[in-house]
Amino acid sequence: MSEKIFSKDELAKFDGQQGQPAYVAIDGTVYDVSGVDAWAGGKHHGNLAGQELTSVIDEKSPHGRKVLAKLPVVGKYEA
């Protein structure tokens, strides 16, 4: 099975709203944050699912990238 490639527009559909899963892209990888309570409703500390958030996790997140290892990978991001 080939890996799913997400464009910016495709990723935006997965915003955690109206029954959609919540996905975020970090450094070219798309992660499913739907099962993370802190991402309920597709929002987490002012950040929205369905977006590329590399700079946010690297520059503003207190936990950094260590949380990514626990998340399911759903594809690759290509802007």
From TrEMBL:
Q: Which organism is it from?
A: Levilactobacillus hammesii DSM 16381
Q: Which residues form the Cytochrome b5 heme-binding domain?
A: 6-78
What the entry lists under SUPFAM superfamilies is as follows: Cytochrome b5-like heme/steroid binding domain
Protein name, UniProt field: Cytochrome b5 heme-binding domain-containing protein
